[in-house]
Amino acid sequence: MPALSAKKSGPPAKAATPAPAAKVGGFKRPVAPVAKPKPKRVNGSKYGSIVSAPPRDPLAPYGAMRIRLESANVHQSPVYEDRETQHYVFSVVSSNDVPEGMVFKVILFKTNPGKRDTRYMTMALVGLDPASPEDNDAFNEFNKDGGLYASTLGDIEAGGNWIEANGGNQTLIGRMVDVIATQGNPCVGKDGQPTGDHYRNFAWSPIPEEEQEVPLPEAPEEYWVD
Fold first, then answer.
1. Over residues 177-194, mean pLDDT
2. Domain presence at residue 34
3. CA-CA distance, 84 to 135, in Å (whole number)?
4. Is residue 203 situated within a structural domain?
5. Predicted TM-score of the model (pTM)
6. Measured distance CA(82)–CA(145) in Å, rounded
7. At how many degrees (to 10) do helices 133-142 and 112-125 cross?
């Protein structure tokens, strides 16, 4: 092994320019980027950007209750253009199982169970019994074009004739119905795992018309019978 030689005297050597990268063990190692200084906050604290989300209505509680339809709309998925859900907001009028005045949301998908609940709920809201074959036949004639569904959700394109016949208002808002909500299948998240919540099973029933606070909607002129 050669002996180490002493440094020669002379002017100090210039600092060498660092190489853009160094090889370590045969692999190229990138030079660490220089950290940029963080911009100084002019006003407010570091917590100033924290904003609370608006409260969400809970899903339907379990139990038997009389409920009032407060609002309804169609929710468009921000990810899938062809995926819509129907959102119905109800308030509890009376119940032995649920606090009166509680507000909750019923979300119905365009699946067979969701379509069934849309039909049975709407039938009960107009005073028809979903369990009656005769009432089902009457509803088929009464809602042959699906306009009553659309007008309840505020869909002018599909239910505009019903909305126009009712002074520009959504139909069935303010109508009441009896319902029993029970626990259904587990809800599954995007990862395929149960979320801990469950879907709801609903049994819808009409109430006597004299107990309603809002009258039945006016049918469009093409439904009139002489």
1. 90
2. no
3. 28
4. yes
5. 0.72
6. 21
7. 90
